[in-house]
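Customer escalation, tier 2.

The customer says the design service returned an amino acid string that "doesn't look like it belongs to this structure." They asked us to rerun it and document both sides in this ticket. The original structure tokens are below, unchanged.
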């Protein structure tokens, strides 16, 4: 596919709709003004058959939502004529409808040096064209699985705009008002070695860098957390105590090829962080060095690289977290009310009447919970004063019958970013990496005026919910809040002593 990696520099100019098939299958939704660029290698490279169904579903989802799924016309044409692609009988028509872009330009030499790297090979040229399209806003998001592309995107600050196929499909399904929940389950370590998808993950992704892992699992050592979707195991993580008991180690973290992405991995990491916090120790991840996508994900979740271990694994450390949340000087605590439906969607592990403590063994011999990511996003009505990075969000569960969490503070997150948006395309540009709202919900909120999109990192659920009556006694609130409410410093000081993370 040498020819498919060539092109010329210059700004992309026009969008050209091709094929009567595209026009025939494309419905007439509102144009979202969002372009999703597809890495052609996913469609034609070796092993592309595994992703064909996902990519087809992405193309249909984009068409239904009014999101433009596009490829570079020249690369697509050359791929269709590549002898190896022809020999393998790859059906590129299956991925229609697609929009063909005029040749994508390379970043300038200055931008390439500052943001990416100089182009030294045809592969570099192809990758830089894709990333250059993000830089020039010719595309808003890129669908790619290549770890090198994810690493270069992170270097340029575009990591939230590069999606794996599985994460892209989850985003589109969420926008359509659907999507499937992730079930997080703790399983017997020995069962991982039984024939099946989890055994394949251990053999292919984990054992090459930890030859003793199989023996430890066979002896029943460690705790194994697995993400399930539609009854199928999609990812696993293995937790062990450090030799001195002074840390918790995530010695394996891997996802199936067709499921790779934050959707199935973040719930495992969130559970591991909760366990480390209850022990009051740091969480250390020892992971294979070749999986850049996973390594970058952990860095986004607050881990820091700390070299390599004797087996060549990357060592990433998340410091021990205090059970009592802290508010830095200059930052503010906000009470954010959520109705029962939005609370369930944002915090699925707390939905319903009352789930047991995460992975606490009860009558079910297979402890499980609905999986929840670490990174959250809330879309609020536009306000004059907005949360700032470092502020705390105290989630307040609105009044709902037969719910223990009714009219109470339930959990805490820390703000990473808050951005005002007036257009649908601007919200979608921020929403893809943290899906949670349907397109109809986003449009409804924008119809009432500008919105504030708040990205936050989950600290955890409260050990004891703080009911409204207690908030009134402390002089923190006089009534249930109707919107985001900033707490004065003295109110936070009175409240802080009642807050402890589970």
């Amino acid at each position: 596919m040498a020819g498919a990696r060539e092109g010329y520099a210059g700004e992309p100019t026009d969008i050209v709709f091709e094929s009567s098939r595209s026009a025939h299958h494309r419905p007439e939704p509102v144009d979202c003004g969002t372009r999703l660029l597809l890495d052609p290698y996913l469609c034609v490279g070796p092993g592309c058959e595994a992703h064909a169904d996902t990519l087809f579903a992405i193309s249909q989802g984009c068409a239904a939502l009014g999101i433009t799924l596009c490829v570079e016309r020249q690369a697509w044409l050359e791929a269709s004529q590549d002898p190896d692609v022809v020999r393998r009988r790859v059906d590129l028509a299956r991925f229609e409808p697609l929009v063909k872009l005029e040749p994508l330009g390379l970043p300038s030499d200055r931008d390439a040096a500052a943001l990416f790297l100089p182009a030294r090979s045809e592969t570099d040229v192809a990758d830089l064209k894709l990333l250059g399209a993000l830089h020039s806003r010719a595309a808003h998001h890129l669908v790619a699985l290549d770890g090198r592309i994810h690493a270069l995107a992170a270097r340029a600050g575009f990591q939230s705009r590069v999606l794996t196929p599985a994460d892209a499909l989850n985003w589109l399904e969420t926008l359509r008002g659907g999507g499937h929940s992730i079930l997080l389950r703790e399983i017997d370590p020995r069962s991982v070695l039984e024939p099946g998808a989890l055994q394949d993950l251990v053999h292919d992704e984990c054992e090459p860098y930890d030859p003793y892992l199989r023996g430890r699992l066979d002896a029943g050592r460690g705790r194994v957390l697995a993400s399930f979707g539609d009854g199928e195991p999609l990812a696993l993580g293995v937790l062990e105590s450090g030799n001195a008991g002074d840390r918790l180690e995530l010695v394996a973290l891997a996802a199936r090829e067709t499921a790779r992405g934050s959707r199935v991995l973040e719930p495992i990491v969130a559970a591991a962080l909760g366990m480390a916090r209850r022990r009051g120790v740091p969480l250390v991840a020892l992971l294979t060095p070749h999986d850049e996508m996973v390594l970058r994900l952990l860095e986004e979740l607050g881990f820091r690289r700390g070299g390599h271990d004797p087996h060549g694994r990357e060592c990433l450390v998340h410091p021990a977290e205090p059970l009592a949340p802290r508010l830095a000087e200059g930052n503010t605590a906000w009470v954010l009310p959520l109705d029962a439906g939005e609370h369930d969607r944002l915090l699925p592990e707390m939905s319903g009447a009352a789930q047991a403590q995460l992975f606490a063994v009860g009558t079910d011999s297979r402890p499980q919970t609905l999986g929840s990511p670490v990174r959250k996003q809330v879309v609020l009505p536009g306000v004059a004063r907005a949360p700032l990075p470092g502020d705390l969000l105290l989630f307040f569960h609105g009044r709902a019958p037969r719910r223990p969490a009714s009219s109470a503070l339930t959990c805490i997150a820390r703000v990473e970013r808050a951005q005002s948006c007036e257009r649908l395309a601007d919200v979608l540009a921020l929403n893809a990496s943290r899906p949670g709202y349907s397109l109809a919900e986003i449009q409804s909120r924008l119809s009432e005026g500008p919105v504030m999109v708040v990205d936050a990192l989950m600290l955890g659920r409260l050990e004891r919910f703080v009911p409204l009556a207690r908030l009134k006694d402390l002089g923190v609130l006089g009534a249930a809040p109707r919107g985001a409410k900033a707490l004065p410093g003295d109110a936070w000081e009175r409240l802080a002593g009642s807050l402890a993370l589970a």
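Tier 2 assessment: The sequence is consistent with the input. The longest strand covers residues 451-467. The chain has 18 helices and 20 strands. Sent an explanation to the customer and offered a walkthrough call.
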